Amino acid sequence: MVCLAPRAPGDSVRPRRLSGVVVRPLNFTVRRYPLSAVPPIGSRGGVWRFAKPASDDAIAALRASAPVGIPSSYYNFLRITNGGEGDLGVDPGWFAPWPAEHVVQNNRQYQLAEWVPGLFGFGSNGGGECFAFDFRETGCGRIVTVPFIPLDLREAVVIAESFEQFSLFVGMPPAGGTV
Fold first, then answer.
1. DSSP secondary-structure letter at 146?
2. FRET pair for 58, CA 20 to 30 Å: which of 73, 74, 84, 125?
């Protein structure tokens, strides 16, 4: 299991551009811990408001409609909390995942496929930013945020290299706790 720990305070976290996408280095250093050492969501020092777990039927319907390549860790996350909201240990600092029953509908209503092709949304920060899987370059679903206005790929910011990495920040204080 790969876990993340805060970097030294003086380390640079300046944004940099890569292939038209702003990449902000995460303010964390990778360290290895056994899976049992990773605190569960709700025990990471921040706020997390759980929703009821997604039903097997809701997850099956989402799997049938979502793009190929959505990681199983995302579906497992929905089995823990199907919606909810709370702290996120990386910018933008707050995460409100969409319930499984609304993910495909929200992608259609926001016209994500038209305006930001290659992205598949799965939540927001409760304000003006969408969380999305980015399948454009790596095909493995980096996690990005993109403003709802304007929905523009040039505004996408990579915040995690995978959903597994992203999920470690869920329920962690925005200043960066330890996982």
1. E
2. 125
2 in any annotated domain:
no
Phi, psi of 78 (to 5 degrees): -65, -25
Exposed, middle or buried, 170 (CB in 10 Å: 0-12/13-18/19+)?
A: buried
- For the record, the structure tokens of 27 come out as 């303010």
> Max CA-CA distance within the chain?
48
Beta bridge mates, 4? 30
- Interatomic CA distance for residues 101 and 85, integer angstroms: 16
Structure tokens given for 48: 């997390």
pLDDT by residue for the chain (179 residues), tens only, comes to: 333 334 444 433 334 344 444 555 544 444 444 445 567 877 888 899 999 999 999 999 999 999 989 999 999 999 999 999 999 999 999 999 999 999 999 999 999 999 999 999 999 999 999 999 999 987 777 999 999 999 999 999 999 999 999 999 999 998 654 44
- Asked whether residue 16 is domain-assigned, the answer is no
**Residues 179, 5 contacting (CB under 8 angstroms):** yes
Task: Describe the chain by its helix, strand, coil percentages, rounded to 5.
Answer: 25, 25, 50
CATH number of residue 48's parent domain: 3.40.1580.10
Residue at 76 is within a domain = yes
Tokens of residue 37, six digits? 């050492």
